[in-house]
Amino acid sequence: xxxxxxxxxxxxxxxxxxxxxxxxxxxxxxxxxxxxxxxxxxxxxxxxxxxxxxxxxxxxxxxxxxxxxxxxxxxxxxxxxxxxxxxxxxxxxxxxxxxxxxxxxxxxxxxxxxxxxxxxxxxxxxxxxxxxxxxxxxxxxxxxxxxxxxxxxxxxxxxxxxxxxxxxxxxxxxxxxxxxxxxxxxxxxxxxxxxxxxxxxxxxxxxxxxxxxxxxxxxxxxxxxxxxxx
Amino acid sequence: xxxxxxxxxxxxxxxxxxxxxxxxxxxxxxxxxxxxxxxxxxxxxxxxxxxxxxxxxxxxxxxxxxxxxxxxxxxxxxxxxxxxxxxxxxxxxxxxxxxxxxxxxxxxxxxxxxxxxxxxxxxxxxxxxxxxxxxxxxxxxxxxxxxxxxxxxxxxxxxxxxxxxxxxxxxxxxxxxxxxxxxxxxxxxxxxxxxxxxxxxxxxxxxxxxxxxxxxxxxxxxxxxxxxxxxxxxxxxxxxxxxxxxxxxxxxxxxxxxxxxxxxxxxxxxxxxx
Lengths: 230, 274
Prior knowledge:
heterodimer, A: alpha+beta, four-stranded antiparallel sheet, 16% helix, elongated, B: 274 residues, 10 helices
């Protein structure tokens, strides 16, 4: 103000004109506000979305768990599988309680993949939509929507789209221990194992796995090499 | 105080009410907003036009009883069922609050279908009300989401297995299905995280979305007016109608707030004062 001559007023001052092509002060501030707002939104939104979607990429590993002493299951003469409960995740006993149907074949081979294996251990999860199946003299039946399976766990009636899952098992210290879960299908009458898929999702389409795996990727359990039955 | 100035008579109760209203009006504009909202022109209506406000009433009922239930409910695998039993059997009027929430949920779905049917058969989804229909559709999907997530929270056998089935139905969608079911479960398998996830969706995310959508939906209802009964047959050789966005069923003048002292009301106040 010291340089202002006496008697002159503020309106005498003329602001320097910006060239036409330049961004005006108002435009600059608008763009800055929008940009800053977008940055703040991203800082909040990106972690929130990642937090929300994190479970989608998470897989669990099946932990071996004992079904009880072998002698409990060997009394079976005709097809009458023994129910065996287990807890998959000891930290969540209420939600991870499962039930396996143990079928004693009458043979004595403790190798689960052998054609004369001692046991076949079925999952009780119906392959329609996941209800628990009950064993019967002809196989298994589901109470929810009437799916029926034969003694191999193969669908004979109702909506299930594939055979019952099976457990990989071993015998240690005279206990029957399930060590992994596999989905199965019979391709041309031959038992074939696949990584676990959720109920209602095909493991193969007429024996071809490519399309089934594109349409329904297996994303539940981590797994090693898929077993080949002898 | 100079004795020459006359002391005004004390205001009448009506003047005091009007003055209070004006005080709020000058500062917020809410009284005008409420009047515009409640006293608006509508075509001849019937009982079918009450379904929307019935739905709003049930939503308020659900929000209120839901907030009360949340004070006692324990969204954990070990505590959920016991806390529901406590609410039903021991808490004062717990059976009533839970019962209202349970029956209100069914009522909301029934009313929603009736409301949607009314809208469809009246042709109320057509121009200029397409956005009202679309926001209503989003509310419909959200209410279905409330049904899905709320069903699990009872945490009995039926709730558990119905939710297993529902999640596996989602899993049968091609390509995205396995990921959608994992997203719903909060992991690869049904677990403790599933019930807390459904609880958060049921009482925070989805109701918040429904509330916001109801606001937009009702804004559009007030702005565009109620659909008249589609009774007038259109002759086949009739010219294409020229639509005007602000026909007589719409609000005739734009919302104008913060202007309470209309001449009419001022006269009224003066008459009362005299």
